[in-house]
Amino acid sequence: MKRWYLRPDDSTVYFDPNKPEVAALLHFLTALMLYGYLIPISLYVSIEIVKVLQSIFINQDVQMYYAETDRPAHARTSNLNEELGQVDTILSDKTGTLTCNSMEFIKCSIGGVAYGRTVTEVERALSKRKDSPFGPKSINNVAKPSIKGFNFTDERMMNGNWVREPNANVIHNFLTLLAVCHTAIPEVDEVTGKVSYEAESPDEAAFVIAARELGFEFYERTHTAISLREFDPRSGRKIERSYKLLNVLEFNSARKRMSVIVRDEEGKLLLLSKGADSVMFERLASNGREFEEKTKEHISIYADSGLRTLILAYRELNEEEYNQFNIEFTEAKNLVSADQEQIVEEIVNNMEKDLILLGATAVEDKLQDGVPECIDKLAQAGIKLWVLTGDKMETAINIGFACSLLRQGMTQIIISSDTPETKTLEKMEDKSAADAAMKASVVRQIQGGKKLLSTSDENSEALALIIDGKSLTHALEDDVKDLFLELAVGCASVICCRSSPKQKALVTRLVKNKTGSTTLAIGDGANDVGMLQEADIGIGISGVEGMQAVMSSDIAIAQFRFLERLLLVHGHWCYRRISSMICYFFYKNIAFGFTLFFFEMYASFSGQAAYNDWFMSLYNVFFTSLPVIALGVFDQDVSSKICLKFPLLYQEGVQNILFSWKRIAGWMFNGVASSAIIFFFCINTLQHQAFRKGGEVGEMEVLGATMYTCVVWVVNCQMALSISYFTYIQHIFIWGSIALWYIFLLAYGAMTPTFSTTAYKVFIEALAPAPSYWLITLLVLVAALLPYFTYASIQMRFFPMFHQMIQWIRKDGQTNDPEYCNVVRQRSIRHNTVGFTARLEASKRFEGSRRMEASFHIEGRAVYQ
C-alpha cells in the first residue's frame, strides 16, 4: 500500500468513508486555513502604508511649494494616488485657476467714451496672430502697475482732469457708484493714514481702489452709512460726503448683479447697481439707453482683450416707491417658508428696473505663471482639457489663445444663443414654444459640428468646441447630452462660457459617467465645489477666493502650473508603484501558496502542512513585507526630469498598461512556475538523496525548511530584478529580509521543543552542516528566476514599452540628442493638437506648404516659358 501511513483501515472522522459529508466539510476548513495565504490580506495594510508615505512625499515636494503665499501642496486624502496617473480629462475653472484672480482695473467706458490705454496680456498674445489689430509698437511699452489692483493710464481721467470732459456729470455718477456700491471694509493704517480694503472678491477691491485713485476715496463704513472723500468739481478739492445706506441687494451667481439703495446728503434716494451685461441691459429704461450701442461696442472690444466687464447703472427713487419696497422687502426677509428666497427675488427684481446706463468697467485677471507651458505638457501627455467659466464667450476665447488652449488655424465650433434667430425666439410670449425652438436650434448646431468633426477626422484637423450657458442648458438635457458629449469628446479643446456652478457639476458628471475615464476637476472658489465633488479627483487652488474649494478637494495646490508635476511625475510614479506592488504581491503569495498546494497533492490531501506554523504566519509579516513597501514608496522607472521631458510616458497610466489583466495573469503564471520549480526541485533532490553525514535522508522538517528558504530567496531576488531604481533602503530591506529568515531560524530553533516544535535546532543540526542545503538553495534560485529573466530580456530588447525605450536612451546618454528623442516621441498615441508645441508644429506645416506651393509655382512658370 503506497500511502500506508494514512491508515485507511483505521480512519479518523477526517477520512471516514462512512461519513463523506463530514469529512468533506472538515477538509474544506483545513484547506481554507492552508490556502488562505493565497489571499493577500496583508496587501491592504501595505497599500495603506504606501499611500500615506506617497502623500507625505507629495506634501514635501519643494517643486510644488509656492513661496509667495507660503503654501505647499497638500494631499488631503491618500486614496487617489494611483488615479493621479490615470487622468484622461481635466475640467478647469478659469478665474483664479488659470488666471491669478488678482484683478487690475484697466479700462472703462463712461457715457459712450472709452478710457484707458494700458495694453493687456491677451492683447500682447493677440499681437502674435496674423489678424491682430495690435502692432509691435503698441505692445512694447507696457508699464508695471505701481498700485495693486489699479493699472489704469489715461491723462483724460487722472489727476482730476475728468472734470474737463464733456460728460463730466456722468463720470461723477460713475465714480460715485464705484465708491458706494460694494460690501468692502476699509482698513486705515494709523501710522501712514493709508486706506486698504477687505473685499468679498478681487473685482470689488479693484473697483474701490480705482475710485480712490480717481478721486473718490471710500474711507469709512458703518451699518448705516458709507463715507467718502470726493473730488468736488466746483472747488477743485476733496470734500467729505456721507451716504446713508438703506439696503444692500447682494450678489449671487443666479442674479449676476448687486445693488445698494442709499440716500445722499441732499436727500435723494438712489438705487446704484452693477452686474453682468446679460442681465443689466434688459433692465435699462427707455430713456436710459443713450450710450447703449457705444457701450456694447466697447464691451465687445474689452472682451476681445481678455477683460472681465461689468455694467454700471442707477436710477432715482421717490419716497413712496421706496417705502412700499422696504415694507415688502422686510416682510419677505422675515418669512419662514420654502419659497422665501423666490419671494425676495421677485420683490428685488421689481425694484431693479428702469435703470439709467452710466458705463462699463473692464478689469484684467492675468494668467498665472507657467500656465501655457503646463497646458502644453498636459496636451503632450494626451490629457484633454475642458475650461468651464462664467466669463463672456469673447473673453474665454481670447484667454484660450493666450494660454495656447486655442491656436490660429484651429476650426472653432461655436454653439451660441446670441444669434438673430434666438433673439427673435426670446421675444416670443409663449415661453415653452420659445424653449423648444431654442433647443431645436442647439441640436442643429451640434449636428452641424458633428459633420465638421467627421470631415476633420479625414483631414486630421483640430477642432475647438465653444458653447455658452444658455445653449449648454439644452445640451445637457437627457435626450441631447449624448449627442453633445460625442461632439465634445472629438474636439481638441472645449470651452463652456457663462456656465453656472450647477452646469459645471453636470458637465463633469456627464464626462465621468459616459466616458468611463478618470476625470479631474480643478478650481479655486465656492462656485467650483460641485464640480470638484463630481469629478473622480478634485484639485483645489488655495488662492484668494477663500478655502471652500480646498476644503472640498482631494488635493490642494497653490498654482495651476503645479498640476504638471503632480500628474506627470507623482501621478505616474504612484500609478506605476502601486500597480507593480499589487502584481508582485500576487506573485509572492502564489509562489508561497502553491508550494503548499503541491505538497498537499504529494501527501494525498491529508491536510498536513509543509511548513511550521510560525513559518507560515510570518511570511507576509517579516520576510517579504518590507521590500514590497519600499517598492511602493521609492521605485522610479525614470527620474522626474525625464517624466517632464517625455510627457507621453503618462499614457501608460491612462491606458492602464501596467495593471491590465494580461500583466496580472503574467505575474500569477510566474508565481505558479516559481512554486513548481521550488517544490519539485526540492522534493526530488531530498527524497532519495543522503542529507546528513550519517547517510540519512532529509525528513519532512528538513524539506519544509529547505523549501521555505528557497521561497524567501526567490521572491526577494525577484523583487531585486523588478526594481528600476535602487536606494540604500531597498538594499537593506531585500537582503535584510533574507538575513532575518536565518536569524529567526536560529533563534526559534534554539527554543525548547515545546515552542519551536518541528523547527527545534533544525538549522544548526541539520541544514547548516549539509552542503546539499546550500547547493539546492543556489540552484533553485537560479532555476526559478531564469524564466522571468529570459522573458524580461527578450521583451526589453525586441518589444520595449515606452518607459523602457526611455531607459535605453538614458543609459546610452542620448536623452539630450534631439534625433533620439524625436524617434521616441514619434510613438505618440495621440496626435498633439493643443498647446504652443502644437501651434509651432502647425505653423511649420503651414510654412512648409507655402514653400511647396511657391516651388511648384516657380517650376510651372519655368516649364511654361
Automatic annotation (TrEMBL):
Record Pfam families: Cation_ATPase, PhoLip_ATPase_C
Keywords for the protein's UniProt record, in alphabetical order: ATP-binding, Magnesium, Membrane, Metal-binding, Nucleotide-binding, Translocase, Transmembrane, Transmembrane helix
EC number per UniProt: 7.6.2.1
PROSITE patterns: ATPASE_E1_E2 (PS00154)
Reactions performed catalytically: ATP + H2O + phospholipidSide 1 = ADP + phosphate + phospholipidSide 2
Its membrane topology: Multi-pass membrane protein
Catalytic EC class: translocase
Parts of the chain that traverse the membrane: 24-45, 585-605, 617-634, 667-686, 706-725, 732-751, 771-791
Limits of the P-type ATPase C-terminal domain: 550-800
Annotated InterPro entries: ATPase_P-typ_cyto_dom_N (IPR023299), ATPase_P-typ_P_site (IPR018303), ATPase_P-typ_TM_dom_sf (IPR023298), HAD-like_sf (IPR036412), HAD_sf (IPR023214), P-type_ATPase_IV (IPR006539), P_typ_ATPase (IPR001757), P_typ_ATPase_c (IPR032630)
Subcellular location: Membrane
Lineage: superkingdom: Eukaryota
Statement: the UniProt record of this protein carries the keyword Iron: no
Keyword Cytoplasm in record: no
Family: Belongs to the cation transport ATPase (P-type) (TC 3.A.3) family. Type IV subfamily.
NCBIfam families the UniProt entry points to: ATPase-Plipid (TIGR01652), ATPase_P-type (TIGR01494)
Protein name: Phospholipid-transporting ATPase
Annotated organism of origin: Stylosanthes scabra
Underlying gene: ALA10_2
